[in-house]
Design brief:
Distance between the termini: 61 Å
CATH architecture of the largest domain: Up-down Bundle
Number of domains: 2
Structural class: alpha/beta
Number of strands: 10
Radius of gyration: 36 Å
CATH class of the largest domain: Mainly Alpha
Number of helices: 19
Strand order of the largest sheet: 6-7-8-4-9-10
Low-confidence stretches: 1-22, 595-599
Amino acid sequence: MDPDPVVDRSAVGEGTVVPERGSRLAQAFRLLRALLRHHKRLFFTAVTGAAVFAACTVASAALVSKITDDIIGPRFNEGSVRARTVVSILGVLILLGVIRAAGVVVRRTWAGRTAWRVTETISADVVDALVAQPVPWHRRQSTGDLITRAGVDAEAATAILGPMPFATSVILMIVLAGVWLVVTDVVLGLAAVCVFPLLIMLNLRYQKKVDAFYMTAQDELGQLSSAVHESFDGVAVVKSFGAEARETERLSAIAARLREARMSAVRLRSLFESLLDGIPTAVNVLLLVGGAYRVRSGAMTIGDLASFLYMFVLLVFPLRLIGYALSELPHSQAGWDRIRALLDQPIEPDPAATQRRVAGHGVTLRDVHFSHDGERDVLAGVDADIPGGRTVAVVGATGSGKTTLLHLVAGLIAPSAGEVAVPAEGVALVFQEAFLLAGSARENITLGAPVGDEEVAAALEVAEASFVLALPDGLNTVVGERGVGLSGGQRQRLALARALVRRPAVLLLDDTTSALDPATEAKVLRNLRAALADTTVVAVASRPSTIALADDVLFLSGGRVVAHGRHHELMATVPSYRTLIEAFEHDREAMEQRVGGGE
């Protein structure tokens, strides 16, 4: 990316400040240079077609004088005209029309290709930037805002590319036509040419005023997309707490600000277009009156006047296209600034790079500290040695740092201090909330990995998820967005199979079997031990029956490892551990009583 020092470098989720810029032409040049860095040839092909169109348009307008003076005039005055004259003039006119049409086809085709290819490139750059950022960065962002930058903002940034080739042809037409008008009649020519700078200044003035409205509208659109995505994503929470009115009011407020910004731009554009229509019409009337006097004095012929007026009228509509291109500039600049604010974010270090890779299947943590806010440690000096091939239950009260510990081992976050050593062969984490894509069961399990159906079936068997094979379309059954077609326990087992099919050296389970009944959970754990004898399993657990099945227990309290040993040993020697397990057992019995009582 070309560096652009005027872009706001604030965090992506905090919006984009309207940048300070120099002249509008310099702004447009910088924007085009940035957008076209990989597709200059396509754009300049479109510009070439536009230039051919411009030259033929001026030539055909100049030919009106020949038609009037050499064909129409003699036919009325003398009663006849030579056929050769008619054929030659009309032949040139038709030839110019064909060449002009070819220029239009080239301009439109290659302008469209340029816009499509640039949008594709920008979207790919945004996606690459999002993929390159680690998990901690994504947790600080708004999903809806990121989606807006990859889609809506990318399209907005390239909106200027469509009309820009025609705008360049209009500039060429103005230059060629201005010279021709002055050569035809100096007095009227200078009067007509003086109108063009006035119209261009009107365009620039309009563009300057509408800039702020488009910037505001683009930012509000990003906020609205983010808020809508968040609201729809949490629709169950919104409805269960009766917050529909609150969400409607919140979205309405953002939509109202967006509407006001766009309406302000529309009102300004209406005034601009009225002036753009009125000024040339008034000037055209004055040119007609002045031209009549010039014809009567013999300073110009009727053909010259007809060609002159035709040329002037012919340029008025293209000048509107310059206004259209300039009106797209702030819109495109707003989209581009938001994209650059994302692309210019430095790629944060991958937390997994801080881990030490070792041989074997064991996991070691040495004086590991971690803090979310830099002040309070969630983990405060954790020391643990987990031998390879063991099943270890991580136990602790809520907020003791169990999930954080697994995320550190998985390499999703980096420790604030200390060292984490994991096997070089790889680590797989299965989250408590199993996230499934809207595709098929096969796609959710493989996630593009080159594994066959036999390997998938084996992973499903270990995860007690063979129910997938009995679905209507088997592995090709579409599970719906977030796995809506499956129960909570089915989603957890499918997510477990997704990790098992990769045969990791370390398997991390973050209360992964919480939605399973105790019998199914016990089967899953036994299957893991039988099928993955060399794999180290570290599981956050709260069921006493699950904890008892583990080889060892890692007991966390206050962000520290209080004890590490067999379950029955900790029950006998660590009072706080025994109290916690008894509380777990009491909660389970109370839950069973409520369920049994029909609550």
